[in-house]
Amino acid sequence: MEELKAIKEQLNKGEVEEAIQKLNIYLSNLDSLHKDEADYLLGNAYRKKGDWQQALNHYQQAIEINPESPAANARKMVIDILEFYHKDMYNQ
Length: 92
Prior knowledge:
mainly alpha, 5 helices, 73% helix, 0% strand, globular
């Protein structure tokens, strides 16, 4: 859990690439606990990079492990952003 806390701090500092690398290593370890939280953080990292598809994929993986994960809210927000439609913006 401490490792995930440190990675979360990296994300907050904007060290996205480093956090992604560490999270991928963390998730590759079969004995890792809190994989739902790691996938949620990885989704956040990809969202910060603007890689919406990877963000959605990792949020979904977190939800499959733990339906009560904060990834459910994050996934919904990303979908809302991607589905946003403002008809006036298309007439400029």
